[in-house]
Amino acid sequence: MTCGNPNVDEQDALMPRRTIGKHANMCVKCKEPTGRVFIRHSVYCKDCFSIHVVQKCRRCLDPHINPTPSPSTSTSTNPKMKPTKTPKRTADLRASGNLVLGYSGGLGSAVLLEIIDKWYFKSISERDGGGDKGGKRHPRNLSKVWEKAYVCYVEMSGVDDTIRDTTEEIREAVSRYPMFEFVPLRLEDAFDPAWWARITGSATLPADLRIISPELDLSLPSSSSPSSSPTTNPLATLRTYLTSLPTTTALYTSLTHLTRLLLLHTARSLSASHLLLGTNLTGLSVNLIDGIAVGGGFVVREEAGEVWQPNADGKGQGRDGGEIRVVRPLRELGMKECAVWAWWEGVGVVGEESVPLKGASIGRLTKDFIIGLEKDYPSTVSAIARTCGKLAPKGSNGGKCVLCERPAQSGVQAWKDRISIREFDGIESVPHISTSTSASPLPTPSTPSPDSDPPLSLSPHLCYVCHTTLTSRSSRSTASSIAGGEGLVLPLWAREAMGRFVPAPLGDAGAAGGDETGAHRNGAGVNGDGAGVNGDGAGVNGDGAGVNGDGDEMKSHVNGDGEVLVRRKVGEDEMRERVGAFLL
Amino acid sequence: MAPKSCALCKKARAMLKRPKTGQQICRDCFFFVFETEVHNTITEAKLFSPGDRVAIGASGGKDSTVLAHVMKTLNERYNYRLELFLLSIDEGITGYRDDSLETVKRNQQQYDMPLKILSYDELYGWTMDAIVEQIGRKNNCTFCGVFRRQALDRGANMLGVDHIVTGHNADDIAETVLMNIMRGDIARLGRCTSIVTQGEDTIRRSKPFKYAYEKEIVMYAYFKKLDYFSTECIYSPDAYRGHARAFLKDLEAARPSAIIDIVHSGEAFEVREEVKATQKLQQTCQRCGYMSSNTLCKACTLLEGLERGMADAGITDRARKRLEAEGPAPENLRTIPFFRPTTTPGSAASTVEVAI
Q1: For chain B, which domains are there?
Q2: How far, in Å, CA of A409 to CA of A198, rounded?
Q3: Where does the signal peptide begin and end (chain A) (predicted)?
């Protein structure tokens, strides 16, 4: 290839061809001069390459198939993948549940499906018609590693009218693998009560919680109909959710989280023990850098592999408490290796429908950067994955984020407040403002009035990434659109998780899980819900407003346990209802 | 359209949009929040004790000029009771450092702080001009970086200070996090977000601007009309760092919080214990007494390579082996003076001549 400059001698203008060693076509494995592909300093022939790819894939997957000897060591709070001792034979592999494979139609998932089918299932199906030849340890006579296998596909066409629905094409592609049952999902299922009821088997829907302010305060459901849900049109709800996000980066991050959680919750409903994803080395490096760039340093380890556990109230989804291992078996294979393998093995790739994003996003920029860097510095992608593999989270774990269901570092809100001052509230003196003003904190919209409930905020229940996703604005926008209209409806799993912090209707106060309610309310001086429900979940306070007869007196006091109790005015109907609970 | 009022004080007219938060605020509120955030960083990390002697690494550029101004302001406002010094390193780059040192000398007058200038020529017998003449522009940043680090420590030791503060900002740290991940430098990745670093025998070194955006530092210098030198180094910047910097700028344009988000990420992870166990332990350089992870420190290795006409000996393993194959270093080899840390901080100060 020449540089195109007619004044330069063609010989000088030719780019020097990169040399690949003395024995350019000598296969590194079989040492025969039949090498056909050059992968990171090594030449492989077609046969050896095919084996090499399958071996690498198995090396990443096999150690994670069998349950760990001690399940207690593998918890969601410390989700480091603790591989078991790698079984030497496939005969020794036995998963505790079913298999779900996340399929997008792209290169990685197509290659993964082919390998899993060929290596872990083909011998089984052949055995069915293969008679009883061979001993019981012969691969042909092995029992299944997973009892059942499913391919899950999340259709993204709900994001935008311009995206084509490819469910049927995917279904056709998956139909080539009869051992796998196809489970189509749609992105809007995250807001679809029917889907939630189907996968949880519960008739009770999570409370209708919406974000109503840029500070991520939530609206509480009305006490008359706590479980009613107006989200009858999941598609419209999804679009409102996505269009309300403050940046393109937030949209990209949210799509990733929604897809991941849809797959995980579906996998749980299918009694799966493993969710396999077709992320290859290049994709993993992109995800790792993207994760770090959006503030996800605390969960960098989860990008490569995680053990996900549903919330404690997992609706009895039996097996191992619903624990699911998310494994990326192609994480040591680069994009080029996957592409060559797919070509030689004749694996069909449907192709992913790209979601049109207006404006630059961190995810897209990272992808372009890493793929560009891989061309000039081919070892960069493996260096990224290798380096991130040596990292561990630092600091204490503050529980699980309700939105992305990954570990959340504690103290992130305090950290954010300290390093960037967004209001003068709480600062003792501001020199350039008069003393009288600075002495009394400037009024903020979120200050609760004495006769209103303090708002339930989503912020304390979010990880750094999700909080930043919902609040960080682009340099162009001036106001957040997140609280526009009727508020932003949360995905169903987040509503379910936040439901534990919603105060129960007064007659049902004892069942509200009061200790958590009290611990997470963020109204100043309020312990519990400020409506007469004590923080210890014991029900109505002995001296609760309205019960002691002087309910019009709104003031707070500290009880013997150091708890601050607030009195408030209650209406006649509410009063009658509460008193009624004590009448014979 | 009516002018917007400041999002913080709600009174004055908003003059600028803060890169860090996106808020539209007035000039006085910007000064206040910028300084207060640095104060929060200092107090949260407990960087200083009353009476500490602190050297400000001053290059004459925007970061160190703003740092000197802010340190002086905070020292007076919050009564830190610090004794502040300016410490400059003269790398010997004609047309760049000589001009920027003029700015530092003016800063010395403006801020009324003692100034100490230590040159590479004085310490190593080489200027960067001479080094570049021998090795070319490739890898010259390796020499400059290694030599500067040690020179700062030695200069601070001469001043008898307890602490060095440098003008590294959030952009620098975010860029370093990305770069260390991409090139697999796990040892540096583990420490690059630490606000304070200190070797066994070296002086505490910290970065009060760790959470300050570069754009805000420029904005502060501009609105305060500070006198700083704004030319980039004339020798080519590190190409790999250039990649990381360009990428970071793109990320910042997509979402301004990206810089602080990366810094947060860097603080939220650490190197796994089993990996730490495989890292080299710190020891003392046999030749110059400075901290080192090998028998010879990096500066001595680089200097030996320069002196023996094999400048890449400190850069690649192959060149290092070639140098070793040529036999031990000659006895008359020029070396760095032996490093003897000041045992009692402050005791050396009276013996050092500083420009006031």
Answers
A1: 36-279 (3.40.50.620), 280-342 (no CATH)
A2: 32
A3: none
pLDDT in tens, A132-191: 555 655 555 556 789 899 999 999 999 988 888 999 999 999 999 999 999 999 999 999
Q: What is the pLDDT of residue B38?
A: 96
Candidates B257, B137, B105, B91; CA nearest to A250 is B257
Q: What distances in angstroms separate CA A415 from CA A284, A520, B264, one per listed residue? A: 29, 18, 9
User: Which residue has tokens 């010997």?
Assistant: B92
Alpha helical stretches, state H, A331-411: 335-345, 362-376, 380-388
The pLDDT score that the predictor gives to residue A106 is 92
- Structure tokens belonging to residue A315: 């609706």
Nearest Cα residue in chain A from B179: A384
Tell me the per-residue pLDDT of A212-230, one tens digit each, with 9 for 90 and over: 877 888 887 665 444 445 5
Q: Where are chain A's structural domains? A: 25-64, 507-584
Residue A531 is predicted with a pLDDT of 34
Q: How many residues does chain B have?
A: 356
Is B267 in contact with A442 (Cβ distance < 8 A)?
no
Low-confidence ranges of chain B (pLDDT < 50): 343-356
> Are A537 and A514 contacting, i.e. CB atoms less than 8 angstroms apart?
yes
Q: Quote the Cα angle for A443-A449-A454, to 5°.
A: 105
- Residues A374, A376: Cα–Cα separation, whole Å: 6
Chain B residue whose CA is closest to A387: B184
Angle, alpha carbons A144-A146-A150 (nearest 5°):
125
* A41 HSE (CA, 13 A, CB side): 3
Give residue B320's pLDDT.
Answer: 80
Helix crossing, A362-376 with A380-388: angle to 10°? 120
Q: What is the predicted ipTM? A: 0.87
d(CA B85, CA B106): 14
Q: Which of residues 465-504 of A touch B (CB under 8 A)?
A: 468, 472-475, 477-478
